Amino acid sequence: MYNPKYITDIMKISGLSSAEKEELAKVQEKFAFRSNEYYLSLINWDDPADPIRKIVIPDSAELEEWGRLDASEEAKYVVEPGMEHKYEQTALVLVSDMCAGFCRYCFRKRLFMDEGIREIARDIDADLAYISSHPEITNVLLSGGDPLFLSTKQLKKIVSRISNIKHIKIIRIGTKVPAYNPFRIINDPHLPEMIRKTGRKDKEIYIITQFDHPRELTEPAIKAVNILQEAGAVFANQTPLLNGINNDPDSIAELFRKLSFAGIAPYYVFQCRPTLGNRHFVVPVEEAYFILEQAKMGCSGLAKRFTFVMSHVSGKIAIVGIDDERTYMKYHQAAEWKDIGKFMSFKRDPEALWFDDYVDLLSEKRIFQEDKPPIPSS
């Protein structure tokens, strides 16, 4: 039974030179490092541009002062300790402050930076009371950190209590464990048993994976996915588009194809959030759109079911089209019910990295350009 050892000190990474370790130790002082023997074995250490390396090994570029720790202003939607209610039908509960690996582009890296920051639901009683009193909530998303870093015994308590709420029809578990440490699943027969028993006739357990590069879909990773699929879990995948990792059409198309072959539906592709330390990962919005459109040409319909969105403070904003002059967006989901489906047109900006680069959110004067009058509200 293989249980890969976790490593939290960059100085212990054998694939790095002494000079690299010294340089990256400065990054680790600010942004925590965590990986394990299995995931590090996927890295081609002879290639300094290796995408798996970029996912988990620190980079001095992270020290650039750009972005914010809470780029999507999640704190604005906290209704109970560790729980957010941003979208009407979905409650987000942060149940863990630990992961099997720390993604260098993580948008919640604040959870791993400061011992004084506490955004995790240590006791879910208040969260459950809130969910129970809001029948419009049909989905509960467990996130963190990574819920699968909890013991199955801990996770089972949480999942079973949520499943007992009558109006909850879907429990989602957001995780990168199948990519980072599939042996957490392979070696634990109690986890599929929990999925099998909790997923009743009127309940669904969704596993929302984060495979970012096709090389993460290894034989052990697919085996771990298959174990939970056979137990009744439904799989979907989300990934940010990341410079140097998956921002070429061939790589991301291969990822989508491999996901579809494994029975994992491509769900969301995110524009990389403007989080502190993330500037070197960000691809301009319009460039990202064309990369994804080109990637779709190499995919079947099943492999290109994803939606390309920005997870903005105001909602999930889909980039739906670009022509010679304009970029078109739509609220795929929104914090304000009236905004869902709202269509927006902007003058093209090839340097734009985020929604705020297109529009002044305070005045909304630029949402519809002078030659595009506002659409009347219905």
Distance between the termini: 61 Å
Report the mean per-residue pLDDT as an integer: 93
Helical percent range?
25-40%
Structural class: alpha/beta
SSE succession: EHEHHEEEHEHEHHHEHEHEHEEEE
Q: Which of globular, elongated, flat, extended, rod-shaped describes the shape?
A: globular
Uncertain runs are 361-378
- Strand content of the residues, in percent? 15-25%
- Radius of gyration over all CA atoms, rounded: 21 Å
Characterize the biggest β-sheet.
12 strands, mixed
Strand order of the largest sheet: 3-4-5-6-7-8-9-10-11-12-13-14
How many helices? 11
Task: Give a short overview.
The protein is an alpha/beta fold. The chain is built from 11 helices and 14 strands.
What does this structure look like?
It is a single chain. The chain has 378 residues and is an alpha/beta fold. The chain has a domain at 6-63. Helix content is 25%, strand content 20%. The chain has eleven helices and 14 strands. It has helices at residues 18-28, 37-40, 51-56, 125-132, 152-163, 177-180, 183-186, 190-198, 219-230, 249-261, 285-296; strands spanning 6-7, 35-36, 78-80, 83-87, 90-94, 139-143, 170-175, 204-209, 234-241, 265-271, 307-312, 315-322, 326-334, 343-347. The chain has a twelve-stranded mixed sheet. A two-stranded antiparallel ribbon has the order 1-2. Strand 8, helix 9 and strand 9 (234-241) form a beta-alpha-beta unit. The protein is globular, with a radius of gyration of 21 Å.
